[in-house]
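Quick log. Single chain, no ligands specified.
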Amino acid sequence: MRGELVIVGAGGHGRELFDAASDAWTVIGFVDDAAAGPRGVDTDRLDRLGAALLGTTEHLVVHPTTYALGIGTPAARRAVVTRLDAAGCAPATVVHPGATIGPDVHLGAGVVMFDRCTVTTDVRIGDHTHLNVGCAVQHDSVLGDYVQCSPGVFVNGDCVIGDDVFLGTGAIVTRGCTVGDG
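-> predicted structure:
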């Protein structure tokens, strides 16, 4: 039986997450704090996915369930997790069926791996880290918590990426390099 999942964030990143999650989860809808703001959420885009806007993150505080974060910014992700964890919600680890995971890989809670990601061997990926479309993480590397790897990021072997790091589209971290926290 497939578990139920709520996606936090109804923008582009969240809607891409819908595709990654739909094979393994029953996505019951989206929550987004922009729903309470003056600009709101573009529900037409959610309608085209066949998905509902359930309201703001307050929905999960009142109705704790399993969630996945469709938020790209590490600091914003961390703030939402703190609130949802306190409410008793459980983070889901989501791996797109088109992603490849080698042996001896540890994925933390709430990790999201999009289509065409490759993680080779002896890799540790921290909690709530996102590997966007086409990322690769090579042998003996460690990615901290709340790391954002934008599309096409390559982390070569023996690298250490600290917590709360944002790697932009096409970034390459060469072998043996360390990127500090933040």
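The chain has a mean pLDDT of 94.
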